[in-house]
Design brief:
about 450 residues; alpha/beta; TIM Barrel; Rossmann fold; 8-stranded parallel barrel
């Protein structure tokens, strides 16, 4: 249970030194209790007090890191069951599966297919972030180790699905620098697998015949001192995998059972093997309830476009607007003499509008105003995108000093601003754009013809 402000104050140094930025230790303690500031902001808390506070104020779900360098990803750390209660913290990651039981041609085709999905949506890169490499004993150890090396060449974070401690150890020796996940601890091998994972410094995935066995195995690993774990929801049935994902998350958050508080892996590739449509449906289900890593057999654009769009919506903080940095964005090789176009800083507006403007091929300077991350009509209604605010932004950014063009295109939905803008920006020709972004290509070509 999280500590209250008074509990934290009792452990504080009570110096009221203000070095933390708060006027008193009590005020600081209240901020720590609310999660607004870390206890590390106070230089005088003892290490014992910090350890006690960090444990008590840690999220009910443990935060786990996988991957290394630029590929490092954070899983878990969730504090709520539903996004509208606060926000989800660390997004679901998607993995594509490989197995040494596949024939060589199928393996090569899959390795070539994985990098093909790689695009940007609203400032976020959408691509296959992880590769699940499954070990089949019948296909042989050497083929598996060779497959692990090939998969590493994709530059993705690997998940090694292997229940044989000896084979797992050899595979980890090849790729441990990339901090992969070792998924294969169960009731019969958890001690050996824990030793292998701990020695390599990697996260260990835990499996069980059912929810009870899974819970007991996680508890046994915790007794060994290993809390760098992931929970495998199993492949018995969709119903059981869903029950484990939901029940473990609920037990961690609502019942404060930290043994259940680990990120999860869902093997959709096995739950709906060979059925791409069902796999896509299950990935969407477990993106919302509550897969930290979801594995599927393939990821083409047909699967990627809806799934990544869903994920981005689910894991966007509802309390924070999606916005881009205000400023001047030259497009299509624009210079200081190129025509100017302005709109708001709402991310979706920016990426839709800039995409259409780029398609027009017309050199232009896209001027993004600070409108609080709101859409055009919403910001206009709120007074954040008005003639006065646009004129003030132009002055603050010294637009007239940076650009020589005096032609400014404004969104068609706020055509009402034309007269007032001409008064507040003397010397500028204000042009009304179409109401829909899709019409911008023809519009830009026509006015510059």
């Amino acid at each position: 249970m999280a500590l209250k402000g008074l509990d934290i104050f009792k452990l504080s140094p009570k110096k009221n030194c203000k070095e933390c930025g708060s006027p008193t230790c009590m005020a600081f303690s209240m901020k720590v209790a609310q999660g607004a500031v870390s206890v590390d902001a106070c230089p005088y808390f003892s290490e014992d007090a910090k350890a006690q506070l960090n444990e008590a104020t840690a999220p009910p779900m443990k935060t786990i890191k996988v991957g290394a360098g630029d590929s490092e990803m954070v899983l878990g750390g969730e504090t709520v069951l539903f996004r509208h209660e606060k926000t989800f913290v660390n997004k679901t990651r998607y993995a594509v599966s490989l197995c040494n039981c596949m024939d060589d041609a199928a393996i090569e085709a899959k390795l070539a297919e994985i990098p093909k999905v790689d695009y940007e949506r609203i400032g976020e890169r959408m691509f296959v972030e992880m590769v699940y490499v499954n070990y089949c004993a019948d296909a042989g150890k050497e083929k598996y180790l060779d497959l692990v090396k090939k998969a590493e060449g994709l530059g993705r974070v690997l998940i090694l699905g292997c229940t044989d401690p000896d084979v797992a150890k050899e595979a980890l020796e090849l790729v441990k620098a990339g901090k992969p996940v070792l998924n294969g601890a169960n009731a019969s091998n958890y001690e050996a697998m824990s030793a292998v994972a701990t020695a390599a410094g990697v996260v260990l995935g835990v499996q069980g015949a059912d929810a009870n066995e899974l819970y007991d195995t996680v508890a046994a690993l915790e007794k060994l001192g290993n809390k760098n774990l992931l929970i495998d929801c199993g492949v018995n049935s969709v119903k059981e995998a869903y029950a484990i994902a939901v029940q473990f998350r609920k037990a961690a958050i609502k019942d404060s059972d930290r043994t259940c508080g680990y990120p999860s892996i869902v093997r959709v590739d096995q739950l709906a093997k060979g059925n791409a449509h069902l796999q896509a449906a299950l990935v969407s289900l477990f993106t919302m309830k509550y897969g930290s890593i979801v594995v599927l057999e393939q990821m083409t654009y047909a699967e990627a476009l809806p799934l990544y769009g869903l994920r981005q919506n689910v894991f966007t903080d509802p309390q924070k607007p999606m916005k881009v940095e205000p400023g001047i964005y030259p497009l299509n090789g624009a210079d200081e003499n190129s025509i100017c176009v302005t709109t708001v800083d709402f991310a979706l507006t920016y990426f839709v509008v800039s995409g259409e403007l780029e398609r027009s091929g017309v050199p232009l300077n896209l001027i993004i105003n600070d409108a609080g991350g709101l859409s055009v009509l919403t910001s206009w209604a709120a007074g954040k995108f008005s003639a006065g605010s646009i004129a003030k932004f132009f002055q603050e950014q010294d637009i007239e000093g940076k650009l020589k063009s005096r032609k400014l295109i404004i969104p068609g939905k706020v055509a009402v601003l034309k007269g007032e803008l001409e008064a507040k920006l003397p010397g500028w020709e204000i042009i009304i754009a179409p109401k829909e972004a899709v019409q911008l290509v023809k519009f830009m070509k026509d006015i510059t013809a």
